[in-house]
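Input structure tokens:
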């Protein structure tokens, strides 16, 4: 019964982490280009009380053994990089990736980060930046006299000045062999890791397995609120059932403690 107490406790602890993850997904249901995460679990080690195949009576061997599991543990929280639906905004600086790939931005320390959030802005110097002021890479500067901005499917940035089109830059995107291995750092940004592998590219959008760009659109979160609510109910019920196991084990121990000769 002592074993069952600790086993049920691992189940409760695992469901706490599961609920933490679900709440994070739901909190970001309207975050641009957010990618939902799933918690994966593994069973813990087993206590072998009797090995299968050991000799038994009359020269026979036991066909099965006795193994008692010791609970569960979270093994991974995996980002799901399935593309979210596109929402039309009409803003010429909003750009969505229709397919695989990431925009590149430079952090203040010179590190390159990656994002699917294409809600770009223009700073006081005309540079194309993120909402936090991080420069899009390669750098693109919009002339002050630009009358309009056009971003093509292939990332070509063209402005109209004095009714004359002028190509001023190229938005490129990168991709990863294992995007689930990227490290999320907040602000809709990711960093490459040894698990994700190095960034492939940069590529012209629409080539080398990357998606094309859609100007005037933003990618929405891929969180399905209904699915997350179902997962939340399942996590809550699993937590309750594990707590019932602890209560049952406690009652059984109380019965033993109350025995009299």
């Amino acid at each position: 019964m002592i074993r069952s107490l600790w086993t049920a406790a691992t189940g409760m602890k695992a469901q706490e982490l599961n609920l933490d993850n679900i709440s994070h997904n739901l909190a970001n249901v309207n975050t641009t280009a957010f990618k939902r995460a799933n918690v994966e679990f593994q069973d813990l080690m087993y206590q072998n009380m009797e090995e299968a195949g050991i000799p038994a009576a009359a020269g026979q061997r036991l066909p099965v053994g006795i193994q008692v599991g010791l609970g569960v543990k979270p093994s991974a929280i995996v980002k799901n990089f399935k593309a979210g639906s596109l929402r039309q905004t009409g803003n010429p600086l909003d750009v969505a990736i229709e397919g695989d790939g990431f925009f590149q931005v430079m952090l203040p320390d010179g590190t390159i980060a990656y994002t699917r959030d294409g809600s770009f802005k223009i700073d006081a110097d005309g540079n194309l930046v993120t909402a936090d002021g991080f420069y899009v890479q390669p750098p693109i500067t919009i002339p002050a006299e630009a009358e309009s901005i056009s971003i093509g499917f292939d990332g070509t940035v063209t402005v109209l000045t004095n009714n004359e089109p002028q190509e001023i830059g190229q938005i490129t995107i990168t991709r990863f062999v294992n995007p689930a291995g990227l490290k999320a750092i907040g602000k809709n940004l990711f960093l490459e890791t040894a698990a994700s592998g190095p960034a492939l590219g940069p590529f012209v959008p629409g080539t080398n397995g990357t998606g094309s760009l859609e100007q005037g659109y933003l990618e929405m979160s891929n969180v399905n609120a209904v699915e997350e609510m179902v997962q939340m109910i399942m996590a809550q019920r699993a937590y309750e059932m594990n707590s019932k196991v602890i209560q049952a084990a406690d009652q059984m121990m109380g019965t033993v403690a109350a025995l009299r000769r």
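The chain has two helices and 20 strands. The helical segments are 2-27, 225-257.
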